[in-house]
Amino acid sequence: MYKLFGTVQDITERKLAEQQLRRKTLEIEDLYQNAPCGYQSIDADGVIIRINDTALNWLGHEREEVVGRMKMTDILSPDSQPLFLDQFLRLKQTGLFQSLELELIRSNGSRLPVQVDSTAILDAEGHFVATRTMLSDNSARKQLEIERAAHEARLAELSRHMVDVQENERRKLAGELHDRASPNLAALQLTLSNLADALPPSVLTELEPMLGDAQALLLDTAAGIREICTNLRPATLDYAGLIPALQDYAQQFARRTGTAVRLDLAPLKTQLLPNVQSLLFRIAQEALTNCAKHADAGTIHLQLAETDEALIMKISDDGVGFDSCLLGESGSKPGLGLITMKERAEFAGGRFTITSNPESGTEITVTFDLHALSTLWKTRQHPSRRASDRMFQTGPGTL
Ligand SMILES: Nc1ncnc2c1ncn2[C@@H]1O[C@H](COP(=O)(O)OP(=O)(O)O)[C@@H](O)[C@H]1O
Ligand SMILES: [Mg+2]
Questions:
Q1: Is any ligand 1 atom within 6 A of the Cβ of residue 340?
Q2: Position with higher pLDDT, 48 vs 152
Q3: Is 321 close to ligand 1, i.e. is its CB under 6 Å away?
Q4: How far is the centre of ligand 1, averaged over its atoms, from the C-alpha of 229 (Å)?
Q5: Where are the beta strands (DSSP E) in the chain?
Q6: Which of its termini does the chain have fewer beta carbons within 10 Å around, N or C?
Q7: Rounded CA separation 330/326 (Å)
Q8: Which ligand is nearest to the CA of 326?
C-alpha cells in the first residue's frame, strides 16, 4: 500500500517538472521568435543557421528557404555587402561588432534599413563557431534623417533667399536715399552760395556765421547719407566687385575707428555671383564692426585667398579676445552677429570657425568649397582671367 502511494507521487512531480520545463521553453521560444527585433546566427562561412520569425517576416522568406541555404550577403543590398564582410572578418577576430547600419533586401525587392549588433559564439578552444546577431528596424530613424535633411535643405534655401531679399531691399533703399537726397542737398548748397553772393555786403557780414553753419550742416548731412548708403549697400560691390568693396570699406573703417587694417586680398580666378560676394562682404563687415566694438585691437588683418578647391576669408585681430564658447555651445547668450555670420556661411555651404583668446586676439575663418559654391549658388568658373578682373588685384598693404 505504502509502496504504491510513493510511486504515484514521483510521477506527478516529474510531470509537473516537465510541464514547467515545456512552459519555460515555450516562453523562451516566444521571446526569441516574436521579439520586436530580428535575431539570427551565422556560421563561419556566413551561412544563416538560425533566424527568428520577426526577421523572417521582415524578409518575406520561408524558414526553409533561408536556414542553411542563404548566406548573410544574400539578404543584403549590394552597398551593404562589403561593409558587412569587412565587419564579419573583424567579428571573428575581436568577438563583436556594434551599431552597423545595413540594408536588408526583402523577397519583394524592397529595402529595409537595419542596425546590426553581433557577438561571437566560441567553442571550448576559443574558436569562432557562429554569431549571435540582433537586427533592429532602422526605417523610422532613417525616415527622420531624410526628413531632417530635407528640412535643413529648405532652411538653407530660405536663408539664401532671405540674404538675397535683404540685399535687394538694402540696394533699393540706398539707391533711393542717394538719388533723392544727394541732388537736393547739392541744390541747397548752390542756393546757399547764390544767396550769399546776392546779399549786400553789410548783411552778408552779419549773416556769414549762420550761412557758414548751414553750409557745414549740409556737408555733414551729405557725408552722413553717403555713409548710410555705403553701409546699406556699397555701390562698389555692384559695379566693381568684392575686392574693391572690401578695400573701400576697410579704408573707411580705418579712418572712422583709427584702427589699422592690413589687407591681403588675392585676385580671384572664380567669378563669384553677386549674392556670394554680398555674403562675404557682410561677414567681413560684421567681423570688422565686432573688432571696433569689442576687440580694442591695434591691427586687424583681412585676408582673402583662393586655392584650387576653396575660397578662404580670414579676419583676425590682435585685441582682447573672448570666450568663443559664447557661440552657442556653453548655454550662455551670444549676440546675433556671430550666429548670423556662422549660419549664413553654413547655409551657403561654407565652414565657419572662430578662435579667440586674450593672448592672440580673435580669428574668424570662412571657407567655401568652390564646387559646393558652384552647385548652391551657380558661380561661373573662368578658365583665364578677364581684363576687367585686373581691377580686383591688390597686394598686401596697411591702411
Ligand atoms: N573681435 C572680437 N574681439 C573680442 N570680442 C569679440 C569679438 N567679436 C565678438 N566678440 C564677443 O562676442 C560677442 C558676440 O558678438 P556678436 O554676436 O557680434 O554680438 P554683438 O556684437 O551684438 O555683441 C560680443 O558681445 C563680444 O563679447
Ligand atoms: Mg556684433
A1: no
A2: 48
A3: yes
A4: 24
A5: 38-42, 48-51, 96-105, 111-122, 128-137, 260-265, 270-271, 299-306, 310-317, 350-357, 361-369, 380-381, 397-398
A6: N
A7: 6
A8: 1
**CB neighbour list of residue 77: distance below 8 Å, 6 or more residues apart:** 102, 103, 104, 105, 111
Identify the architecture of domain 240-399 in CATH. 2-Layer Sandwich (3.30)
Ligand number with the minimum distance to the CA of 334: 1
Nearest-atom number in ligand 1 for the CA of 334 is 14
Any idea which of 67-71, 76-80, 344-348 has the lowest mean pLDDT?
344-348
The least confident of 12-16, 24-28, 295-299 is: 12-16
Cell numbers linked to 265: 586680398
Distance between CA 30 and CA 168 in Å, rounded? 66
What is the average pLDDT value for the chain, to the nearest integer?
A: 87
Tell me which of 288, 338, 356, 363 to substitute to probe ligand 1's pocket, judged by most ligand atoms within 8 Å of the beta carbon: 338
DSSP states of 102-149: EEEE-TTS-EEEEEEEEEEEE-TTS-EEEEEEEEEE-HHHHHHHHHHH
Give CA–CA dist 145/318, Å, rounded: 42
Tell me the CA–centroid distance for residue 291 and ligand 2, in Å. 8
Q: Find the ligand nearest to 292 CA.
A: 1
Q: Quick check: 90 pLDDT over 50? A: yes
In this prediction, residue 372 has a pLDDT band, given cuts at 50, 70 and 90, of confident
**Distance between CA atoms of residues 339 and 346, nearest Å:** 10
Give 34-137's CATH code, choosing from 3.40.50.300, 3.10.310.30, 3.30.450.20, 3.20.20.100.
Answer: 3.30.450.20
Q: How many residues are listed for the chain in this entry? A: 399
At residue 47, φ and ψ (nearest 5 deg) are -85, 140
Confidence class of residue 381 from pLDDT cuts 50, 70 and 90? Answer: very low
- Tell the residue number behind the cell numbers 552597423, with chain if given: 100
pLDDT number for residue 379: 44
Pocket of ligand 1 contains residue 259 by CB under 6 Å: no
Answer yes or no: is the C-beta of 295 below 6 A from any ligand 1 atom.
Answer: yes
Q: What confidence score (pLDDT) does residue 328 get?
A: 55
Q: Report whether residue 319 contacts ligand 1, using a CB cutoff of 6 Å.
A: yes
pLDDT tens, residue by residue, 23-35 = 999 999 999 999 9
Report the separation in Å between the CA atom of 366 and the middle of ligand 1, taken as the mean of its atom positions. 17
